[in-house]
Amino acid sequence: MLEGYRGKLASLLVSKGIDIGDKIRVRKGNLEVEGILFPSFSKYDDILVIKMDNGYNIGLKIDGDEIYLVCKKSVAENKETKGGEKSRGEVKIISTGGTIVSKIEYETGAVKPALTTEDILEYLPQIREIADIDAEVLFSILSENMKPEYWTKIAEETKRALDEGSKGVVIAHGTDTMTYTASALAFSFSQMTGPVIMVGSQRSSDRPSSDSPINLYSSVLLAKKSPFAEVSVLMHGESSDTYTLAHRAVKTRKMHTSRRDAFQSINDIPLAKVKWKNNEIVMMRNDFRPRGNHNTLDSKFDTRVFLLYYYPGMDPSFLETIRDKVKGIIIAGTGLGHTSEEFEPYFRSMTKDGIFIGMTSQCLFGRVNMNVYTTGRKLQNAGVVPLGDLLPETALVKLMWILAHTNDVEEVRKMMLKNLAGEFNFRHSEQLFPRWYHE
Amino acid sequence: MLEGYRGKLASLLVSKGIDIGDKIRVRKGNLEVEGILFPSFSKYDDILVIKMDNGYNIGLKIDGDEIYLVCKKSVAENKETKGGEKSRGEVKIISTGGTIVSKIEYETGAVKPALTTEDILEYLPQIREIADIDAEVLFSILSENMKPEYWTKIAEETKRALDEGSKGVVIAHGTDTMTYTASALAFSFSQMTGPVIMVGSQRSSDRPSSDSPINLYSSVLLAKKSPFAEVSVLMHGESSDTYTLAHRAVKTRKMHTSRRDAFQSINDIPLAKVKWKNNEIVMMRNDFRPRGNHNTLDSKFDTRVFLLYYYPGMDPSFLETIRDKVKGIIIAGTGLGHTSEEFEPYFRSMTKDGIFIGMTSQCLFGRVNMNVYTTGRKLQNAGVVPLGDLLPETALVKLMWILAHTNDVEEVRKMMLKNLAGEFNFRHSEQLFPRWYHE
């Protein structure tokens, strides 16, 4: 089946006995390209898409008879997987959906998660060269539709894979809420035999600029070889393709809607840099959790929480409308951790009733400090708990996890302030704030 | 009165006839420092604080008899203001409170806004060298307590000053919500004779590392001399004291809880750089609104809005609890502008009832694009309006302003998408995303 190819080019491929997945060679003037024939998603009939050995897709305009079959897919595959040998599953890839496993839905022109992990492996055979892969499609959803109950399922599948001997687990996930899921897994696993590498892509696999192959390749490499056994988010490190970065789950944030290097560590440095071209993992810190002997999982979440983004003009009586629905609130406050003083009596009354209220900052960078200004002191006095340099989103997921384990508000407070998964960084340095282009 | 001085040092000053505000000279070994005697907020009895000509405070440990009176305050003042001549008010400073006009409250150790603008001028006489100043204390509040009704008062006072001939207005404001107020003023003024420079400081004036004098100095310089007549936020440009940056109000965000260069332009470049040491204004763009002939103000706000920060696990029925209270909602969605699909029917029903729902991204950088993924298309179909590269906070203030002017939802949509104060930047470049320290 020549998925996506039409007209003259499709006929040419048929006449040469070439199928998707076959290794082919294309000559265009002085340029000679060898690689795997990839399905075409181009709107033009004369574009041939090849996945090259370096992991890139290339789209070539075919004017004449310059295509040669190098070897059939079955031969290529057998060579790589040593035909017939059952996969040992050194690395388990769990696909949950998202752009990294997406293709364009032709009827609407929008992108939908559809490709299976097997499809991905077919397009990126190099992955098989670094690890034997076990693959599974657990969900096929865009990550904006991800829910805490799915987090639990992903955590359980992950544990099963690690228990069965996988050296690491790669979770293909949509980028929208990838850091929320990553934090959920990080709080759920207190011990692990290997890392969990969450991976996504900002540009779908059918686009020549896709970050999907390099991110997936890097994540498999890390899953197999990383010295750490933590939950990490792996994405491009800068806008070109030189390296990828593995961030600590709980300190990561998607900071751009479309850039390939959108994911960045906030208030902390990443765990590792992956120089994927050399199969090299460069650790950026040594305070990581190493691979352990067993996996301890406790993955329950209570969604009776609310993330309150404070702004001037917000009516404090709004709190009354959610009061009966929540066991805890995370505030994204202003500056060092403030809301208007008018919220004080509402907070006081809620915390007296056993509702946990924690303060983070909408600045994102830096840490809250509620001892500097009068308002901060008043809010603390009303029971609001300052949460250091915790990101608002991480604080929320952590609170969901804690509330599923205790209802005792003093215990909730203690656990919220305990460094469970590296979510607090007490040593901020000048280097943690990015540099802006004004010099 | 020798505010803050105690013990031996106070006696020494008295014996020399030296008061706060006098010009003095201090010799310490080879070091000779000349400047204005500043009140001491030090906990040590032997620290003398001098405001030097370069705008810095310096704290000197006094061991012996090294202090000389250069000239009394009255003489120094008369020299500068040409004694008796009424201030022409080239620049109006309106003080609303905040750290820039704060001092430590000794009973609690917290910082409270207390210093008047006159106090500030006394400590920073250099300001008088660049412009004749009119000063006014309008409010004395920490900016987390700022409200839309105060925005209107600030706008009216600003217009009065411009109408009365001020070349520009400086508004001293707490940093917590400074960008909200700045956006509110930006949407309120459609024409201006001069700029409004919002200025704050991250460290209070009584700390040696205070950014207050340099920021205030820069803002007065800009208010008097800038070619643009827009609302701008002026703060430190980097963590040392080399330059300050004037950001366009509607594109600015406080990105750090404590750094002096916390304020940064998001998805856009600043208006100007101020090399304050040379009294130099370097324009960074030429698409600014120039000084006009008159001031047109329309400063009403409707606070029946809500900023919804989406997260996985958020219950869509939450919308029912706020439905009757709002005329509009700004969503800080994930990625390119999403919430879970489960919100779709709620949004559809609300927009049918004439409630405006606009989408921004919690990524902050980049722009929403609700045509790429199925979810985005569904939400648009339900009436959710994508708001390009608008910051969530700017979108909220803009919506408050628009809703005070029309109830027609189609008109609201049109105005939300119209570029009223430079809040949309359609030309993003690679340089707009900051650089992270991983190379």
UniProtKB/TrEMBL annotation, chains A, B:
Which one Pfam family would you cite for this protein? GatD_N
What is the residue range of the signal peptide feature?
A: none
Superkingdom of origin organism: Archaea
Q: Which is an annotated GO molecular function term of this record? A: glutaminyl-tRNA synthase (glutamine-hydrolyzing) activity
Residue span(s) of domain L-asparaginase N-terminal: 91-282
What reaction(s) does this enzyme catalyze?
A: L-glutamyl-tRNA(Gln) + L-glutamine + ATP + H2O = L-glutaminyl-tRNA(Gln) + L-glutamate + ADP + phosphate + H(+)
Q: Where is the Asparaginase/glutaminase C-terminal domain?
A: 304-416
Q: Which GO terms describe its biological process?
A: amino acid metabolic process; regulation of translational fidelity; translation
Question: What CDD domains has UniProt attached to this entry?
Answer: GatD
**Where do the catalytic residues lie?**
T99, T175, D176, K254
GatD N-terminal domain location: 18-70
Give the enzyme's EC designation.
Answer: 6.3.5.-
Q: Print the keywords alphabetically.
A: ATP-binding, Ligase, Nucleotide-binding, Protein biosynthesis, Transferase
Q: Which PANTHER family match?
A: 60 KDA LYSOPHOSPHOLIPASE (PTHR11707:SF28), L-ASPARAGINASE (PTHR11707)
The family assignment reads: Belongs to the asparaginase 1 family. GatD subfamily.
* NCBIfam families, sorted: asnASE_I, gatD_arch, PRK04183.1
**Function, in words:** Allows the formation of correctly charged Gln-tRNA(Gln) through the transamidation of misacylated Glu-tRNA(Gln) in organisms which lack glutaminyl-tRNA synthetase. The reaction takes place in the presence of glutamine and ATP through an activated gamma-phospho-Glu-tRNA(Gln). The GatDE system is specific for glutamate and does not act on aspartate.
Listed under subunit, the entry gives: Heterodimer of GatD and GatE.
Question: What name does the UniProt record give this protein?
Answer: Glutamyl-tRNA(Gln) amidotransferase subunit D
Which organism was this protein described from? Sulfuracidifex metallicus DSM 6482 = JCM 9184
Q: Which gene encodes it?
A: gatD
